[in-house]
Structures are given as structure tokens and as C-alpha cells.
Design brief:
Length: 214
């Protein structure tokens, strides 16, 4: 799961923070693959409202559990991952437990979850833009989630087909972005080392300019 902190907690990354973030790349990759597969099943399956409730609820619980064990991609405290993961698990359980029209429950639950996640991603990307190399990708993901959330929450008369297409499309696209981001996160240590070497080279030239006399 793509997690960022909405609070600007960092101004400069350390090697330890880069390593901690990079080690979690496989979680992003796994959730991305699950997202693409689940989104495809949602869009191309033949659903009843009750079946969609079971599938979406289960998917939210699985993704929430993975989020709990992930590391925020901006190097912030793991508590953000735990909070977001627990929220997603509770929403998944709520989809099963909430009495009422099944389709409305799915649209309402997923809509508010996407709005919460998307808002966190947008604010986190903006506050982290000074040091997060892939902040633009995080921003796009957050905007996508907010847009789908507004669509789901703003249409109380959604049909089953419209709900399936909206959730399925968002799940697939979010999964693709997670996979792309997973490889960006995996390459962070190499990027960090390259930037450090360039900075050291530049500082060395400034301290010992060409042509200076001993």
C-alpha cells in the first residue's frame, strides 16, 4: 500500500531511512499485483450485489493487513501505515457487517476510504516534494483516488454496473501505479549513493578548485 505522512516530518533523508523504505518495495509490488488481478476480476466478473460485497470486503481486509506491515514511502513513522491499514481492515469488516442495501454499502465504504487515502497521499506528496524523488507519482495516485471517491459518493443512485466499473478501474490503475512505484522504491539506495557521490565531488571541487596553488 502506498502510504505517506500528511505532516512534513523530514527535511533530509538519511541512509538508514532510505534502506528502511527500500526494503518495503516488495509489499508495494505484491499489493500492486493483487490490485491488478482483483480489478480485472471485478470488471469482468458477473456480479450480484451480495457477491460484490463479499469480494470487496475480503479485498479490503487483505490489503489492510499488508498495509499494516508496510513502510511509508516518504520515510515517515510506521504508525501512519498501521493507522491506514487498520482503517482499511475496519472498512472491509464494515462492508460485511453493515445492514442495508448491499450496493450502497460498497459504494459508500469504498468512496470514503478512497477519499481518506487520496487526501493523505496528495498532502503527503506536496509536503514531501523537497526530498521525495517520486512525489509526482504519489500525487497522481492521490488525485485519482479522490476523483473516484467523489464519483462514488456523489451518485447515490449508482447502478451495479457503474459501481463495478468505477471500483474495478480504480483498483487496476492503482495497482499499476503501485508496481511502478515499487521499482522506484527498490532503486532508492542506488539513487541515494549516486547523489551522495555527486555532492561529494562537487564539494571537493569547491574546496580544491582547478588551478589553485598549494
Amino acid at each position: 500500500m502506498l502510504v505517506t505522512s500528511p505532516i512534513d516530518e523530514l527535511h533530509r533523508w538519511t541512509r538508514a531511512q532510505v534502506n528502511a523504505v527500500s526494503k518495503g518495495w516488495w509489499v508495494l509490488l505484491l499489493t500492486g499485483v493483487i490490485g491488478i488481478a482483483a480489478g480485472g476480476v471485478i470488471m469482468f466478473g458477473r456480479w450480484t450485489a451480495d457477491d460484490l460485497v463479499v469480494f470487496v470486503g475480503t479485498l479490503l481486509i487483505i490489503r489492510g493487513a499488508l498495509t499494516v506491515f508496510s513502510v511509508p514511502v516518504d520515510g515517515s513513522m510506521r504508525s501512519w501505515s498501521i493507522v491506514l491499514g487498520v482503517v482499511e481492515v475496519f472498512v472491509g469488516v464494515g462492508v460485511f457487517a453493515w445492514p442495508g442495501p448491499a450496493l450502497l454499502v460498497v459504494a459508500f465504504s469504498v468512496g470514503w476510504l478512497l477519499l481518506f487515502r487520496g487526501a493523505m497521499a496528495v498532502v503527503g506528496a506536496i509536503t514531501s516534494r523537497g526530498y521525495l524523488p517520486f512525489w509526482g507519482l504519489v500525487l497522481v495516485t492521490g488525485i485519482l483516488e479522490v476523483a473516484v471517491a467523489i464519483y462514488l459518493l456523489g451518485r447515490p443512485g449508482l447502478t451495479l454496473i457503474a459501481t463495478v466499473l468505477a471500483i474495478g478501474f480504480a483498483t487496476v490503475l492503482y495497482g499499476v501505479l503501485e508496481i511502478v512505484l515499487a521499482f522506484e522504491v527498490k532503486s532508492l539506495p542506488q539513487r541515494f549513493d549516486d547523489l551522495t557521490k555527486r555532492s561529494d565531488t562537487v564539494l571537493g571541487r569547491q574546496r580544491d578548485p582547478v588551478g589553485s596553488k598549494p
